[in-house]
Amino acid sequence: RKEIAEVMPQVDIIIEMLDARIPFSSENPLVPQLRKDTPCIKVLNKADLADPALTARWVDYFAKQKNVRAIPISQQQPEQIKALLELCNSMLPERNLEVRAARAMIMGIPNVGKSTLINTLAGRIIAKTGNEAGVTKAQQRIKLENNVILTDTPGFLWPKLSPTTCGYRLAVTGAIKDTVFDYADIALFAAEYLLQTYPAAVMARFGLTEQPENDLALLDAIGMRRGAMRKGGVVDLEKAGAILITELRAGNLGPITLETPEMVSQELIDAKIENREPLGIMRARFFLYPAQATMSVQTFDPSQTTTLDTPAKTLAEQASNGTGSKIGFVSLGCPKNLVDSERILTQLKAEGYNIVPSYDDAELVIVNTCGFIDSAVQESLDTIGEALAENGKVIVTGCLGAREDEIREVHPNVLGITGPHSYENVLKQVHEFVPKPKYDPFTMLVPDHGVKLTPKHYAYLKISEGCNHRCTFCIIPSMRGDLVSRPIGEVLDEAQRLKNAGVKELLIISQDTSAYGVDVKHRTGFWNGQPVKTSMQSLCEALGEMGIWVRLHYVYPYPHVDDIIPLMAQGKILPYLDIPFQHASPRILKLMKRPGQAEKVLERIKKWRQICPDLTIRSTFIVGFPGETEEDFQLLLDWLQEAQLDRVGCFKYSPVDGAKANELPDPVPEDVKEERYHRFMQLQQAISAERLQAKVGRTISVLIDEVDDEGAIGRSFADAPEIDGAVYLNGETSLKPGQLVQAVVEHADEYDLWATLVE
After folding, report:
1. pLDDT digits over 512-523, tens only?
2. Does one domain contain both 573 and 611?
3. Containing domain of residue 145, as a range?
4. Which of 26, 147, 241, 280 sits at a 20 to 30 Å CA gap from 559?
5. With helix as H, strand as E and coil as C, how does 99-158 read?
6. CATH number, residue 338
């Protein structure tokens, strides 16, 4: 990125190489950031492999963008490639090319034919070409005819592979290595799309007389037709998938395009907006396995559907050295559930049990379930069924465990069921079916901070359990009970242990963080020999002295939240508030049994920002609640425009079994919910983009989360892990996760920032 940025001021026109089969997925978002208003030609390469009708639609799509033209080409037709030079000249009408040659830069992700194009334009072999993704290694300048100087750049990948479908399309066409995704997933993705869009072409190529019902059936048919069989006459699906992908890449299925402008526009809305779910709803899926005395975790992308993938792959270097009885563990649901999983695993490790990474190796599997919304219930039931099918011995715990009859109706053979935060009962059931192992406590050590399932540099700190509110759309109190606050000394002790273990950020969670201590009448506890009141204010004051990031989640908008804002302004805790407002119409809030003073909330937000100008506010809302009229919804939009919240999640209301809202009259039709959802998110997307754009040029602190060959990805104080945006530091490969750095913001989109390190 630095090399490109240095050359960019000298460039008259940009040539961006795209794969005509995936014009959107093969774009790189760095191009518009770097080019700004510089004219750009989108070269739709491999047009001979793409559907010509859809290629024409993509040309029209790009033509609507400022200073952009698109041209389809095929490497087999050099005259099309030569036409590029004429197009370059036509897009620079004011440039006198006799005085100075036009300077063009060619850019593109790996393996889209950039090097082959350069060689064709130059009339000789200049750039290395091949099928390996990313073979161009260095920047070079080439003098072409028509008085054009071409600057080549190293190939660089889409930095986020987001939406996820973009990554799959890149893998299907071979633009990224097959190892980035599970190969079977790539083949299934391609099979499903081809059946929906080009069924006749697939059937003709493989000689099928009947259209397969689904993706698996297609691979099965291909395997039988092409002899991709295992012993016993069973189709080898991996080989069948390889046959399909090979045929597709070679163009043997005929001209195929894997995306349309309308399709990707919808995917951006669905994946980039809708799936940034609030922290309390996000359903990350974990299959856990050990790494010496601590735990590692393989996560499944929560932005994808709830359809379950196979268990996490075993990493050889993380094989456990323990000799105790072997337990498998799957954790579903929100961070509060994750903390429950951590506590169960800590106790299991302390008793000498060995946590293993696969169903096959386990003597018993524990599934910690989520049951908050219907899709989470279904995912939990599916996961229990998967564990039963793969292992046979399953214990169920978590929120759905509070509805034992519902689980038994679907899965009568589970060994035991317990509700949420029922650690002792889970251990008792484990003891019943897998007796305590003999172990040496001096060699099988458990860290002082217990088993953690998050990266080393951040951790969730749960301060209470349950909730005293009775919101009509929510069933959490029926699963987790009324508010029960943890002793403040115990909470602060855990926080100190986490800090000592290297944690740089604590995320404070509960069902109702601002109610902390209400159930014990804010009694005085003790920590480090000093009295401390059991309240959110005192907790924040004590945590603020630890010198690490402290982030508040699930803050109900009580009046005493005002007292926390000065601590944020002083830098004691992060200026970040996660407050689920849910709606703005007084009538709907009343039906929800939520606070109904929207105007006063706006006044408080203004006051908070006066005290702490850098305050970031995250919230969640529900549209399509029973009885919501267009007037109610417009009140919500007006309020949202006035509030100018930084981070927002939105849900279309759906009935939850056991919720009081199910009894309300006047349900909103599904198509109306959908339309309101998109209007809401379009407005918030614009607000978010404007607020992030205001950060361009500012120096911010960035906590690094991950580093790969492309650079580092981190978060600012305004970004909670998993649910908010990210800060991309492209090219900074020497940084380490957990490192806190200073960076200057160079670019922003609707959710994320791109920045460069302060030297």
Report:
1. 899 999 999 999
2. yes
3. 1-152
4. 280
5. CCCEEEEEEECCCCCHHHHHHHHHCCCCCCCCCCCCCCCCCEEEEECCCEEEEECCCCCC
6. 3.40.50.12160
